[in-house]
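User: Second chain of the day. Same drill as before.
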Amino acid sequence: MSELVTGEAVALELRPARLPSRALAVLLDLVAAVAVYVAVTIALVAATASLDEAAQTAISIALFVLVLVGGPILVETLSHGRSLGKMACGLRVVRDDGGPIRFRHALVRGLIAVIEILMTFGVVACIASLVSARGRRLGDVFAGTLVVRERVPAGQAGFVPPPPPWLSGRFSGLDLSAVPDGLWLAVRQYLTRMGQLDPQVAWSMAGRLAADLADRTGAPVPPGVPPAAYLAAVLQERQVREARRAFGHAQAGSGGPVAGAGGTAGSPGGYVPPVYPATAVVPDVRPVVHPVAGAGGEQASPPQDGPGGRPSTGFAPPA
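Assistant: Same format as last time:
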């Protein structure tokens, strides 16, 4: 999975597009461009029949550049990275920092596409995509862009349970810059699968992940906070920050809407946090403090045995 995080990526786990889907999108774009080129050429030939051969040749070259080169650039600029083929395949071109592309990004991609797609029949683009770890062609490398998948099948997108309401916004002051992407991925995978684990194993894994996360942030886990709830709260804080960074510095609280650049909260250009199903919301369970004999203080410990004689995690998994 890509380290790129946008507003949509926070909710849907957007991933870099693979070569087959990108090739299909390019093929659809070329078919549409060639169809427009042929139609406009027929109309111009009929309109310029009285001109000499040199003038007709100049018009044909200008038409080729405008339709097959300028057309894709204009479409990607106006649609913010979603051409006809990319819309059909569920793809989008974004910047490396997760924001929407601008005219200069589309211009660089379009000009280099003439060489690596049109002149070489896509051979150079295929080789570059296969070599790149994120499937980027040369146009993406020079433009600083990335093609990502906007639509992920429901079976591949695991649901991450939200933290208890009393933890929302509690970790807004943590420094998350030192947390590596691998640890974030491990936390996310644990939260999406903890309902499938044995309660004792789930508690142990949550404790180790929480300890690793606390070491990276430099702040210990607050006393009385279950490890799984701590992980969910910190992950939510990271999602809110990444959405704010991708779409602007408008006011955004934990779990609140973030207005994007040139848009408002709830509009297509802004970030709206995902709405979780009512059956999957974690109940508002207050932390339980368990005394530890001889420790001289109190700290969170695994809850007592639940139904079936097995200890529960202290954090309700999604239904």
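The longest strand covers residues 91-95.

User: Great, on to the next one.
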